[in-house]
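Blinded run. Sample ID left blank on purpose so nobody reads anything into the name before looking at the predicted structure. Input follows.
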Amino acid sequence: MTVYCIHDRTVAGQNVIVLGNDSTDFTAAIAPGFGGACTSLRHGGHELLHGANVFTSGAMKGRIPVLFPAVGRSFEKGELGLYRHHGAIHPMDIHGFVKDRPWREVDRQCAPDRASVTIEIGSDRDTLRFYPYDFSLAIEYVVEDTCLSLIARVRNLGGETMPFCFGYHPYFRAPIGDGRREDCIVRIPGRKIWEMFEGQPTGRQIDAPPELAEGMRLPVDHLENILTEISSPRRHGDRPDARPVSVFSYCELECPEVGKIIRIGFDEQDLETITVYSPPDSGFVCLEPRCGLPSALSDSAPVKDGMQELPAGEEFTTTVRVRVITR
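Blinded prediction complete.
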């Protein structure tokens, strides 16, 4: 019998909401006050996230930070942390600002087939000073079987088109158990890589090494690429008169020492790139579904591919699924 549950816990002074499936021993912990991040993901006694439930380090030191309204670094005339928009210069931290601000819980549901919590953040007087758009961003975290779904809804509450980038930055332990980082395998079905120079895209794409799609062991040295032209393993609901209803792709991390594959599924029509990031001796690998590129919000951005432009009053919705497969 499947038993789903929701528990409130206090970890290092933080309120944490734990969604669980007792029958599969799968849990996800969400911390609304810590940037709305998923701060722990466990299966079969193994913690899957680097930096799990550690609240003394910054948002970009582990867990699953949420990236909005920027991804990557922003530069203005070579100065980090600034962007020019409609002629005015504003500050913008790496990967945006929602990762550093408290969210609020708006709903929770525990049913026979799932457990979920929805949290939300919105614009306020402070955010409007450096991101001049009125918005709301809600994420519904859903646990089903051995899968965590992250269903994001961005709403433009203002009167003009709102540009933004969006994504996640999950830090997965590599290895999960007692093996070596170099024994872990990543699979990312991207045909091209955005060429980067000093943290910014040049506008040029180069061919991705085929072993990334086929399955590549993490190298001893640094690995960091933004892959695009994702080749879809599966397509659903194609319509001849419009874009596909859903074009779901996935990338994977395999940790042979514990017999687990972490599969990250996403709709490539909404989140058209995957960033892979794994420094040497780090003990983690990030597999990051995103839309938009570094500095895309800037008037002078070299590349704006993938940046969303949401009309007034409309909503952007996208789903990412993190599934654990046991071999």
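Unblinding after everyone has recorded impressions. Residues 4-326 form a domain with the Beta-galactosidase; Chain A, domain 5 fold (CATH 2.70.98.10).
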